[in-house]
Amino acid sequence: MVQYLMNSTEIVTDEESIVLYFSEPEKGRATNTDIIHNCIGKGYRVIVVTNNFPSKVLEKLYVKNGINPDEVFFIDQVTSFGGGSSVKSDGNHIMIRSPQDLTGLSMAFSDVMKKFSGDKIFILFDSLSTMLIYLPSDKVVKFMHFITTKLRTLEESGAILAVKGGLDPMLYSQVGSLVDEIVDIG
């Protein structure tokens, strides 16, 4: 089902669902922030997989928007890649060496799901569009299938962010078949 929402503040998440959110490029950060705020308010343990912005940038954005960044766990694929080699994984961050490292990302994802296994988890994957810069679409679809299958097996929820108009029709239909809902934030 595709929903068209007037603005991202209307975002609603249901338990055990996976949603693909499309937004205009300039609304990506606001969409990310609104989803995080909404999920924390609903009692989720939020895990952000970011290949779009370094986690430190997102943390500053969250603080600016009234979100305590300590309530979010980050799997960061871009900080090390962008030259932040001195930044190490810690209790609230796992640093992956590059956006192309799907093996490292898969292992980190599995580790985090185990770490928070007693919590109600929400995974935010930001962003599918950026992932396509680094990887061919067939690998992206296979990885998204892994993520969505893992979430369903563990009865957890998640969202995938993408830029509106940023997916070719074949990729749109393939990824669309993996989610419960597609939301176009108009």
From TrEMBL:
UniProt-recorded name of the protein: KaiC-like domain-containing protein
Organism whose genome encodes this protein: Methanoplanus limicola DSM 2279
Superkingdom of origin organism: Archaea
